[in-house]
Design a protein that fits this description.
alpha+beta; 6-stranded antiparallel β-sheet; 6 strands; 34% helix
C-alpha cells in the first residue's frame, strides 16, 4: 500500500482505526493485502461488543419512579451538586439521552477528553425509554441534516471558492417540512447551543426534544466513551422550554456503575 508510505505513523494508525468493513473490502477488490487492517477492525468490533455487553439499562428500572437516598447522593456527588440542587434529583425525570451527533473524540476511550453532544430524548412515558424509537428518530434527524449539507454549491459559493475566500454559505432548508426547518438549520451549525421541542414530522407523537450538552469530563461515560448504542441516561432538571443555551447544568449524568454489570 504505497500511499501509506507518505503518511506518518500517527496518521496511519488513525486511518486504520476508522476503516469500515466496506472500505476494507473495497481495497481488497483492488488487490491490496488488508489482513493487518482486518485484524484491527475485528479487534475494534470485539471491544465495542465488550462494552455493549457490560451495559444493562434495565438496572435503572428501580430508579425510574422512586429514588433511594444512596442513589440521590451518588448522582449529586458525581455531578458536584450543591445541597439545594440535590433535592431536585428526587423528582427529576430519568431519561435515555440518545446521541445524535458528538465530538469525534467522545467515541473513543479517553478519560481526559471532553466535547459537545447533541442529545435526543423524550419526556412522555411511551417513548422515554423506547430505544428503538430513539434510534429511528435520531437517524431521521441525521438524514435530514445530511440532505441539507449535501446540497450542490451555489454559483456564489463557487466564485468565493475560486477567489480563495473562506465564506461559509448558509444552506437552504425550505425543502424540509416546515416544522423541521429551524431545528435542522440550527443543527447544521456545529457551534450552536440549543434545545428544540421536535415537531410532529420527527416526533411521531412523542414529547420529543433535541438539545446540546457540553461534557467536560469524558471519564463520566461508560468506559470513558459514548456507548455503542449511543444511549446515555441522565436525570433532567430545570424548566421544559425551548431556547438557546442547551441543557448544561440540567442534564445530570448517572454514575455508570448503576447501569453496568
Amino acid at each position: 500500500m504505497g500511499f501509506l508510505s507518505n503518511m506518518n505513523k500517527q496518521a496511519t494508525q488513525q486511518w486504520a482505526e476508522n476503516l469500515t468493513l466496506e472500505q476494507i473490502e473495497e481495497w481488497e477488490k483492488q488487490g491490496l493485502d488488508m489482513s493487518e487492517y482486518r485484524i484491527i477492525f475485528e479487534e475494534r468490533q470485539a471491544e465495542q461488543q465488550r462494552i455493549a455487553d457490560s451495559i444493562d439499562l434495565s438496572m435503572l428500572d428501580k430508579f425510574k419512579e422512586t429514588r433511594t437516598p444512596d442513589f440521590v447522593e451518588d448522582v449529586a456527588k458525581f455531578n458536584k451538586l450543591s445541597d439545594r440542587k440535590k433535592q431536585e434529583l428526587e423528582t427529576a425525570p430519568l431519561v435515555y439521552g440518545r446521541v445524535v451527533q458528538a465530538f469525534n473524540g467522545l467515541f473513543k476511550p479517553n478519560p481526559k477528553g471532553d466535547g459537545g453532544i447533541v442529545f435526543l430524548y423524550a419526556l412522555d412515558g411511551a417513548h422515554r425509554y423506547d430505544v428503538e424509537w430513539l434510534a429511528k428518530t435520531a437517524n431521521r434527524i441525521s438524514e435530514m441534516k445530511e440532505s441539507v449539507e449535501n446540497q450542490p454549491e451555489s454559483t456564489t459559493g463557487k466564485i468565493f471558492g475560486f477567489l480563495g475566500v473562506n465564506r461559509q454559505e448558509k444552506k437552504k432548508v425550505d425543502f424540509l417540512p416546515e416544522d423541521c426547518r429551524e431545528f435542522i438549520g440550527t443543527l447544521c451549525n456545529d457551534t450552536s447551543a440549543f434545545r428544540f421541542h421536535l415537531g410532529k414530522t420527527l416526533s411521531d407523537g412523542a414529547d420529543a426534544w433535541c438539545s446540546t450538552y457540553t461534557l467536560w469530563e469524558q471519564s463520566k461515560l461508560p468506559m470513558a466513551q459514548i456507548p455503542p448504542d449511543r444511549i446515555v441516561p441522565f436525570l433532567l432538571t430545570g424548566e421544559r422550554k425551548e431556547g438557546y443555551g442547551g441543557i448544561d447544568g440540567e442534564a445530570l449524568l448517572i454514575p455508570p456503575v448503576y447501569y453496568m454489570k
